Amino acid sequence: MTQTIRIANSELAVEVTTLGAEMQSLKTADGRDWLWNGDATWWTGRSPILFPIVGKAPGDLLAVSGKTYPMAQHGIARRREFAIVEQTAASCLHELVSTDETRAVYPFDFRLTLEHRLEGHTLSVTATVENTGDNLLPFGIGFHPAFLWPLPGAEGKAHHVALNNGAEPGVIQLEAGLIGETLPTSPFKAGRLELAHSLFDNDALIFPEGAGNALSFGADGGPSLHFTFENLPNIALWQKPGAPFLCVEPWHGMAAHAGGTAELVERPFTVALPAGDTMRFGFTVEIKD
Q1: 34 in helix, strand or coil?
Q2: What digits encode the pLDDT tens for the residues 104-148?
Q3: Helix/strand/coil (H, E, C) string of 127-150?
């Protein structure tokens, strides 16, 4: 049965549900919520975890050593009930382990934990993947948090995304949800992207490399969210065109190539984790108001 738990400190409060271990709200002490509310008019997600794939598989079929399995966009974890392993006042840890049901669509043994932790004005979200089987564990993993656009208190202000490394990374255009060609020019100029809803008319902006491990999403002369990323080399920005949110998505793994194979190990940036090993991925977001 789905449960929602609350963690808090003097600055922030977060609610997390056991369904997908998905964050439901991120509020400052004044009661303002900075996270998208899941309004079905636009998108019911709020902050899903993407595992064992990021993005789409061709025909929603994933191949493992030539055998195909049904696999919806962004994988199975977001649709599974996690167990609550640990909860303190300012942190919580959820767990998903492989079962006969998961092995029927993803034929591997694994343990996935997701921790939410508050410290001051900062939220840390950390995923740890453990290979509990006897063979290599191939997977992709990513985060998909959606934040209000405009940010609270910044209505009517222009918004932007700024990369800490000042880069102008190449951007990929999706083709029916699959990885297409790299576009000839980057939308970033000296590390800054002026946000406009029209940027997302053709789906997400995906930056496979070069965006660095830190960025900010903010309003000109207003509040901002400052992100850092751990072991997540791919960055995507997405919204439903015209919707009042922006997803800042750090990934390790991407959709299959358009016109390419459905094999899991051939997907860009797929991880191959040895038996018994663990790997950690995470992001932080600090609210500056």
Answers
A1: coil
A2: 999 999 999 999 999 999 999 999 999 999 999 999 999 999 999
A3: EEEEECCCCCEEECEEECCEEECC
CA distance 88 to 12: 14
Q: Which long-range contacts (CB under 8 A, 24 or more apart) does 217-221 make?
A: 217/147, 217/151, 217/159, 217/160, 217/161, 217/246, 217/248, 218/151, 218/159, 218/160, 218/162, 218/288, 219/150, 219/151, 219/154, 219/157, 219/158, 219/159, 220/157, 220/158, 220/159, 220/160, 221/157
pLDDT at 244 over 90: yes
What residues pair up with 282 in beta bridges, in sequence order? 126, 230
Helices (H) and strands (E) in the chain, counts: 1, 24
Bond from prior residue into 241 cis (ω within 30 degrees of 0): no
Confidence of residue 63 (pLDDT cuts 50, 70, 90): very high
Confidence at 173, pLDDT banded by 50, 70, 90: confident
What percent of the chain has a predicted confidence (pLDDT) above 70?
A: 100
Distance of CA 181 to the CA centre of its chain: 22
For residue 88, CA distances in Å to 29, 85, 116, 119 come to 18, 11, 10, 13
pTM here is: 0.97
Strand boundaries in 58-188, DSSP class E: 61-64, 67-70, 83-87, 91-97, 110-119, 122-131, 137-139, 141-143, 146-148, 159-163, 172-175, 178-182
User: How many domains are contained in the chain?
Assistant: 1
- Mean of all residue pLDDT scores within the chain: 97
What CATH number is given to the structural domain containing 106? 2.70.98.10
Range of the domain at 80: 4-288
